[in-house]
Structures
1.
Amino acid sequence: MATVDDVEAALANVIDPELGLDFVELGLIYGITIEDGHVHVTYTLTTPGCPIGPQVESQIEEFVGELEGVASVDSEVTFVPPWSPEKMSEDAKFALGF
């Protein structure tokens, strides 16, 4: 059975192509729930008009779906609360000059 840590590690493969950093480091993953092999990921984008939304959803399903014990994956984008640079890891802030 996959754990939240396993899912988070898989989500580190979802890269923002503009910034070159992963969604976990950018603080774009808002929640992960696992129940009976079903994984639900709540995430956000840096802006509501960000054009990579469909690509992100596909990558989430691909990378998380490869984990042992995962029967299904679904994702949900939200803009509440809005993303801000304060949500980034210290490493991401350093890499982007914050």
2.
Amino acid sequence: MSLAAAQFVSSTALGTRIVVRTRIEGGVTDAVGYLRAVTETGCTVETKRGLVTLALADIVAAKQVPPPPAPRAPRHPLAD
């Protein structure tokens, strides 16, 4: 666990977009999204795939990230 990363998550305002790297079996994984809840032992991040609950003890890195890019304009079909 990175104490600094866990402290960052614990002190970050809810609604902030963050990336959190956590230890999993066989390596690490990242959760990118909006911080929705923080407890003494964990945090909840709202990702594109839904809510993810992470243990503070498993966090190895975390930081604030900018908003996602705007959606691309749709491609127009080529005229014949």
3.
Amino acid sequence: MEAYTSFAQVYDMFMDNVPYEDWATYIYKQFHKHGITDGKILDLGCGTGKITSFLSKKGYDMVGVDSSIEMLEVAAFRNDTDIMYLHQDIVEMDLYSDFKAAYSTCNCLNYVLEDTDLYDVFQRVYDKLEDGGLFIFDLNTEYKYREILQDNTFAENREDGSFIWDNYFDTENNINEYQLALFIKQNDNIYKKYEEVHYQRAYSLVLIQKMLETNGFTVLEINDEYSDEKAKEDSEIVTIIAQKKC
């Protein structure tokens, strides 16, 4: 069972509590803070393209990369014809040009389960950034997996769909398993059941910083979820801002 196949159909409906516009505004302000007011921007794990679209409307030349063709199909329906969407795995992405900045949201990088693969992602981003380019990304924290998600079940029921989301966190390997059952309303008013399994890895911030610096980045900030406050022990999401050395 692959992640983000059937879920893509109702992803935006169930994620309407996510402050995409606030996150996009934060990223936009960081770009301007560092003098990036135009040019090519890379969205890693762009999903249904909400933030990609927001930044495109701000005048950036956007490229979105995602491994889920179903999510990219939803993004394409936004009719942002000036955005290029690429169906690629971010661990193996092969891009055609350089970028002034790159970013990744919605804990996309937690889906990279191996140290060596995440290292490769950082290296590929570094190689495709212009000198001084920014790399902004978020991560779910070890605290969130251990204290919030571990062995808990979440559910939501709506008119057009429902879900049951079971979690199991393997504390030895720092892997969180999401078992997702979706009930999606069909045209004949019958609900069809879909099942997906998602896996995410909890990374220590010490390891993340070491990987970035080894790849040539300078870590500028590690903040609590899209804010200007430094990350805390009980931060559930952190936002990391790194810069390619000139």
4.
Amino acid sequence: MTTTPSSMASMSPLPVSCLINAHNCLMGSRCYLGDTSISANFEWVCEGQGHVLVCVPAMQNDDPPTATGHDTSVDDNNVDSPGIPPTPLTPPTFLSAIVHIDQEDFWLTPDGRYQGPNGIWKEFLDVKPSCTLVNPGMEPVMSDFPVTLHMLQLFTQHCVTPSFSSGKSFFSSDEHGPSHFKLCHRLFKVGLHTVSIQKHYSWWLVLVQRIESDLDGKLTSQTSTSAAATDPFSFELWPLTKERTHAELLALKASHHILPLPMYDLAGNLIQPSAYCCSLQGAIMEVHFTLLHWGIASAKWDVYGGVIQLIHILVPPAPTLVTTRKRKLALHIKDDDSPSRKTMKV
């Protein structure tokens, strides 16, 4: 169930102000998908066995870039994920949008609701928590959302493989065309301590620099056995849908580290994994993400995916209403009314 404009009419002035301020700031960033003028700012470049969308330096903007000249061929083997090297030659662009997180199609939990090997995730290492993003339903960003979808379509149409058709993993459509899109989060990273991707983009928001210091501190603490018992970001205390998957998670500790979701609340504080669901599901957020392309040769599909780099909550989810019990309970009972007393009198 998504939030409607009418349900937002009673919001307090503070969230409304945050929403407007974020919109005004992003409109001048050259990366906001609600701004049609950014279409000439980007190009696709090869990255591993796929492609990544990157920002074109301002001096080159005289000639609108296209990706038709790039080699979009793929290997004969299936490519299940694009895989970005730790130090890419060209920094990916952080596209940005203001969106509402759908409450129904929500999998952006600490473990993606993983319950063991299945048809989607063969092992814990494959898990990539995701969510569906829809129209925020409130101006000024409500009018920007159709533009956001259009811009994403435009970018994906500029990176195609001959004879391939478009996969449906990124956009979801109705009778009028794409109505929402999906983003995911990379949960694991190879190595005990790896410089986070944000370090390569000093031009970006000051908030991204805060992510670097916060997450580096969390990841460093994971290497300390003494800190694991109290660190909410550690393998030992990472929230799980099913406790039986804990052993599988701990088995990854020697070769990987967990990447906490770079998500911040209204006050700019990093949100702990245990609060992901109550903080995100149904919220309006400012999200920054990279856009990737790869091909699946066996199915002849072009697949596109967005990987979350930063989330800033602008409007928290509405409190969940608890329905009143149909049968009211007494606030006090007498000794004679207890079940044991009644049984003795029978």
